[in-house]
Specification:
The complex is a heterotrimer of chains A (about 500), B (about 350) and C (about 280). Chain A folds into 2 domains: about 230 residues, Rossmann fold (3-Layer(aba) Sandwich); about 160 residues, P-loop containing nucleotide triphosphate hydrolases (Rossmann fold), CATH 3.40.50. Helix content of chain A is about 35%, strand content about 25%. Chain A has 17 helices and 22 strands. Chain B is mainly alpha-helical and about 350 residues long. Chain B is built from 14 helices and 2 strands; from the N terminus they run E-H-H-H-H-H-H-H-H-H-H-H-H-H-H-E. Chain B has a two-stranded antiparallel sheet. In chain B, helix 2 packs across helix 13, helix 4 runs antiparallel to helix 5 and helix 4 crosses helix 10. Chain B is globular. With about 280 residues, chain C is an all-alpha fold. Chain C has one domain: Orthogonal Bundle (ABC transporter involved in vitamin B12 uptake, BtuC). Chain C is about 75% helix and about 0% strand. Chain C is built from 12 helices and no strands. Classes of the chains: A alpha/beta (about 500), B mainly alpha (about 350), C mainly alpha (about 280). At the B-C interface, strand 1, helix 1, helix 5, helix 6 and helix 12 of B face helix 3, helix 4, helix 9, helix 11 and helix 12 of C. Chain B: GO terms for molecular function: transmembrane transporter activity. Chain B: This is Simple sugar transport system permease protein. Chain B: Keywords: Cell membrane, Membrane, Sugar transport, Transmembrane, Transmembrane helix, Transport. Chain B: InterPro entries: ABC_transp_permease.
Chain lengths: ~500, ~350, ~280
């Protein structure tokens, strides 16, 4: 077998008191796909960042073909032949595809646009791109952007390729295409790091699997010896039960949307109609940027729209504060939008209802903090005290703060976007549990997610957005991953 | 060498960072004094001389008054994310309002009240315009408030050289002396007009309570920390910003009234009304880290800078601009130290 | 009429130069609010050296001070990732203060052999064109634009974000220094405290009006130049107080800011780059 292409020895990385990686050792050979498996927060991304020169390790060393190397920046990583396809496409949206690809090349100090285009066309002959080189990147779909990202990585002729959760923005079909390409690259002798938390992908693609948990390597298995149960136990440290099923919905209609139109950059969200009943979860899938965000923001009062929207029989006001008072909760796409990092946990739990704590014009912090303690207990929010600044909490706990705040008034409708994005398995289970509790009490949930498994597990009915139009909804029983994937990409049910 | 974020810097490291940057600032200041041709040691001694006698201390206090009023308003505005750089102009507008009430409204026991009212209103208007331009058009308040400073400057020049020029002053550019009703009482024979000082203390206290104890302050802090969250919650962002622009402008306006009613007793050339209070107050507010109450301390610290600048001017006929040098250097040192202590330095390549 | 246009160009030149300098910094993602102060200090350095040696050396000194100002801003805004706006404002105060302090002994002295305004105006025009080519036809320009739009992506692509930003600040600083030197060596060959008179701020606003494009800055600068000329010319000949004319450029800046407040700026403008965030 000879020297491994890349070898990590005893890597440790700390951020203040937090240990992100502890004594991790692993290696990858030429022509091998090594999967790095672990749930969110297990330290996968930190390890990638160390390999690509974004951080410096506190302890341990990295060997490339037997030589110790110090990877002090992405630039050095590239010179050494290490390339990275990041989890979310990091491209320069305002620039053309060609200019983005050019950043992966050794460029002369002066160049003309035409010469650049010719050179790129020649280089891309055996990797068809399928998009116009002159198009600005912001017009591309998430899948196309990732293709650009991959080709840019390949232009530098790497020896080691790191793919960080590459399928999180892809449709099932796009993911298949990517896997085919990865197998081809492997045959050409590249050493490939494949980072994922999805078991099927890992089992389908990897030669060897290293499992990380809480920053430590907890197992290494060959593909032939691995199965799902074993990997889950390694990853989580215990078995994971599937989320409990919600009871069937009631008759009462909570939300009625007819012919909704939301103007937006590119194409509008158009002709969207659906009804949502009490005790029902409607899941909405879609390729990133198909109008999910616009739909949710319009219903949450953050975006102007046209069309008829009725909530419990009356028109929906377009004011977030009044909506919440009426019983519409909103879990925003970005966690950072839903909280204020510099304010305390108690204050963040009171963001919606702070005027209620006024007594004689002054806020009663004693009461606010007592009520916060109660919520923290009920939602298992881990923080030293209600006065702790929110920014010191982990992503999962921040999400629990948002959920606790949005659900505490017993809303009739929850608009939830990516509610478990980037949180660990335990927190995700709790988020799902809370949402289902609410559904049992007769609340309705509009669930937008990039995670098809999440949608299929929680929803009564599912639909997809395709270029601003709603496909479906269809009953959950008639849906499958594949069918949902087709609805997202082809716009047919 | 590279810098990485350090989420929990130790106290010793923070102290070291501040000490290093302050020493650097002092060193650069010493170089400038040398270049000007005076001994740095003597210059430093003169600079600190106001601390050594009662008269000097009263000079410090006198300069701390406008800094306190303006600084409390700016600390408040910065906390809410409104970068009001135009306190200088708002102060001048306040002085204009005060002068109008003193010179053209029937005098009486109500004169001082009317002066502060009109001056505060004009200052609020001047700050409010910038807030409105930001809310309505997205114009950067940093630049609009700066430009408004020039507008206010020329307005005052126009008034004192034109329509308001005094009947009894010949070659000079200023108005007639205000009637006695328009004079603020002072402490003994110093220039410390204590009613304005009390006003400043009251403003700092009130804004502190407003920000940290009331529902309105809660909303304002949300807006300042995370504008996206403010929109998500449906807070009236535009109205809140107008409010902040108005309040910080009003306080600067009151400071302007204090200067003309307490010290000069007339409206005169802009450079004589304000000794660069607008910029120095930014430093006072920044030092106070968005806590209006802390301005009670920082205003006096910066009052010393202004009084020290004056002492340098007298001792070495140094241009008063030296105050800008001191303020600029120390503000740089401050943000540099703050930034450095947030990071840890990794020397290994 | 012809005179008006010529004066407009001559007065627009320092605004153009300073504006190009600020533009270069902003395209790389760094707001340079120190322009006014750096310009003043450059004007002084240029004048002082021209008086002692030769105007050409003075010109170089002015540019050198501008470069230093840019690098100083870089230390705070790029390396330390401090608040760019506060750092820039401090630099402005420091520059204005230091020039007032050190320039006292040069106040009122005449410069025997000033530089030709016309030549420098042409140079400024050429520099605008060169800057356009630099941004769109060179590797450095591509890196610079990328760093201003998405430093994280550029960093992942292997671009040295900090290096490019320092480069932009240094180059831009040179242009700002040139603007200062033009004032004290050619336009009004002398030194007076406060001779920049707010031109630095106008230049920063102009960057927004020009939508961060060097060629558009040319027209904006000459427009402001015309306004300054009219202010000078119409004073006394119409029954409007001269102070009202004096406020015109500043009013125009406010108008410009209101009209173009929501123009698309480089995406990463004003945000310090922190790796791994």
């Amino acid at each position: 077998m000879g020297l491994p292409m890349l070898r990590l020895e005893n890597i440790t990385k700390r951020f203040g008191p937090v240990v992100a990686n502890r004594g991790v050792s692993l290696e990858v050979q030429r022509g091998e796909v090594l999967a790095l498996l672990g749930e969110n927060g297990a330290g996968k991304t930190t390890l990638v960042s160390l390999l690509y020169g974004l951080y410096a390790p506190d302890e341990g060393r990295i060997l490339l073909e037997g030589q110790e190397v110090v990877i002090s920046s992405p630039r050095v990583a590239q010179r050494l032949g290490i390339a990275l396809v990041p989890q979310h496409p990091e491209l320069i949206e305002a620039h053309s595809v060609a200019e983005n690809l050019a950043l992966g090349l050794e460029l002369p100090p002066f160049f003309s646009r035409r010469a650049l285009l010719q050179r790129l066309q020649a280089l891309l002959q055996d990797h068809p791109l399928g998009v116009d080189l002159k198009a600005p990147v912001h017009r591309l779909s998430a899948g196309e952007k990732q293709r650009v990202e991959l080709l840019r990585a390949l232009l530098s002729r790497p020896k080691v390729l790191i793919l960080d959760e590459p399928t999180s923005v892809l449709t099932p079909k796009e993911a298949e295409d990517l896997f085919r390409e990865v197998r081809r690259l492997k045959e050409r002798g590249l050493a490939i790091f494949f980072i994922s938390h999805k078991l099927d992908e890992v089992l389908g693609l990897a030669d060897r699997i290293v499992v990380l948990r809480a920053g430590e390597k907890v197992g290494e298995v060959r593909r032939e010896e691995a199965d799902k149960d074993l990997l889950v136990r390694l990853m989580v440290g215990r078995g994971v039960a599937p989320p409990p099923k919600a009871p069937p919905p009631r008759e009462e209609v909570v939300l009625e949307v007819e012919d909704l139109l939301v103007p937006r950059h590119g194409f509008p969200l158009q002709g969207v109609s659906f009804a949502l009943r009490a005790g029902e979860v409607l899941g909405i899938a879609g390729v990133a940027g198909s109008g999910q965000k616009e739909l949710l923001e319009a219903l949450a009062g953050l975006r102007p729209y046209r069309g008829r929207v009725r909530f419990l029989g009356s028109p929906l006001p377009q004011d977030p504060a009044r909506l919440f008072a009426l019983g519409v909760a909103h879990i925003p796409e970005e966690r950072s939008t839903g909280v204020v990092g510099g304010m305390s946990v108690a204050e963040n739990l009171a963001l919606r209802t702070y005027p209620r704590y006024a007594r004689g014009g002054l806020l009663d912090y004693g009461r606010m903090e007592r009520e916060a303690e109660d919520l923290m207990r009920r939602h298992r929010i881990q923080a030293p005290s209600p006065r702790t600044p929110l920014r010191t909490l982990s992503g999962g706990n921040v999400q629990k703060v948002i959920l606790a705040r949005e659900l505490k008034e017993g809303p009739r409708l929850v608009l939830a976007m990516h509610p478990t994005y980037g949180v660990d398995v335990g927190a995700a289970e709790e988020v799902h549990g809370r949402l289902l509790d609410l559904v049992r009490e007769g609340g309705a949930v509009l669930l937008v997610s990039e995670d098809l498994d999440e949608i299929l597990a929680l929803s009564h009915r599912v639909a997809a957005l395709h270029r601003g139009r709603l496909v479906g909804p269809i009953p959950r029983e008639e849906a499958s991953r594949e069918r949902l994937g087709r609805m997202m990409t082809e716009g047919r049910a | 060498m590279r810098l990485e974020l350090d989420p929990a810097p130790s106290l010793g490291k923070v102290a070291l960072a501040y000490a290093a940057f302050l020493l650097l600032a002092l060193f650069l200041l010493a170089l400038l004094f040398l270049a000007y041709g005076v001994s740095p040691w003597r210059a430093f001694a003169v600079f600190l001389s106001p601390l050594t006698d009662p008269l000097g201390l009263s000079e410090v206090a006198r300069r701390a008054i406008p800094l306190l009023l303006i600084g409390a308003g700016l600390a408040f505005a910065f906390r809410v994310g409104f970068f009001n750089i135009g306190a200088e102009g708002q102060l001048l507008l306040g002085a204009v309002g005060g002068a109008y009430a003193a010179l053209f409204l029937p005098p009486g026991p109500w004169t001082l009240f009317l002066m502060f009212l009109l001056g505060g209103l004009l200052g609020a208007l001047w700050g409010g315009v910038a807030a409105w331009l930001k809310v309505r058009f997205g114009a950067s308040e940093i630049l609009t408030t700066l430009m408004q400073n020039y507008l206010a400057y020329y307005l005052v020049v126009y008034l004192v050289a034109g329509p308001w020029k005094g009947q009894l002053v010949f070659g000079f550019l200023y108005t007639d002396r205000f009637p006695p009703w328009a004079h603020l009482p002072r402490l003994g024979d110093t220039l410390v007009h204590w009613p304005t000082l009390l006003l400043g203390v009251g403003a700092a206290l009130a804004l502190q309570v407003l920000l940290f104890r009331t529902p309105l302050g809660f909303a304002l802090r949300v807006l300042g920390e995370n504008p996206a969250a403010a929109r998500y919650l449906g807070l009236p962002v535009g109205r809140l910003l107008l409010w902040v622009g108005g309040v910080s402008g009003a306080l600067a306006g009151l400071a302007g009234v204090g200067e003309v009613a307490g010290i000069h007793h007339r409206l005169l050339e802009p450079a004589q009304i304000s000794l660069g209070y607008g910029f120095t107050a930014i430093l006072a507010a920044w030092l106070a880290r968005g806590r209006p109450l802390w301005v009670l301390l920082t205003a006096f610290l910066l009052g010393l800078v202004l009084a020290g600048g004056d002492a340098l001017k007298l001792a070495f006929s140094m241009p008063f601009r030296v105050v800008d040098v001191v303020s600029g250097l120390f503000l740089l040192a401050l943000i540099g130290a703050e930034a450095l202590s947030r990071h840890r330095v990794i020397w290994r390549r | 009429m012809e005179e008006a246009l010529l004066r407009a160009v001559l007065f627009g030149t320092p605004i153009l130069l300073a504006s190009l300098g600020a533009l270069l910094a902003e395209r790389s993602g760094v707001v340079h609010l120190g322009v006014e102060g750096v310009m003043a200090l450059s004007a002084l350095a240029a004048f002082a050296l021209a008086l002692e040696t030769s105007p050409l050396l003075g010109l170089l000194a002015g540019m050198g001070v501008g470069v230093l100002g840019g690098v100083a801003l870089g230390v705070f805004a790029v390396t330390l990732r401090a608040n760019q706006f506060v750092a820039g404002l401090s630099l402005a105060a420091l520059g204005l203060g230091a020039s007032g302090l050190l320039g006292k002994r040069y106040e009122g002295l005449p410069l025997a052999n000033p530089l030709p305004e016309g030549g420098l105006a042409l140079l400024a025009l050429g520099l605008a064109l060169l800057l356009h080519l630099l941004l769109y036809r060179t590797r450095f320009g591509l890196y610079l634009r990328s760093v201003g739009e998405n430093p994280k992506a550029a960093d992942l692509f292997g671009v040295n974000v900090e290096g490019v930003r320092y480069g932009a600040l240094a180059l831009g600083g040179g242009l700002i220094g040139l603007a200062g030197a033009y004032l004290s060596l050619a336009y009004r060959p002398s030194w007076t405290d406060g001779m920049t008179g707010g031109l630095g701020w106008v230049a920063i606003a102009l960057v927004i009006l020009a939508a961060w494009e060097p060629l558009r800055a040319v027209f904006g600068a000459y427009l402001f130049g015309l306004l300054f000329f009219l202010q000078f010319r119409l004073q006394g000949s119409v029954p409007i107080p001269s102070e009202a004319f004096a406020t015109m450029p500043y009013l125009l800046v406010i108008l410009v800011l209101a009209l173009s407040g929501r123009t698309r700026a480089p995406k990463a403008l004003g945000v310090p780059f922190e790796r791994g965030r």
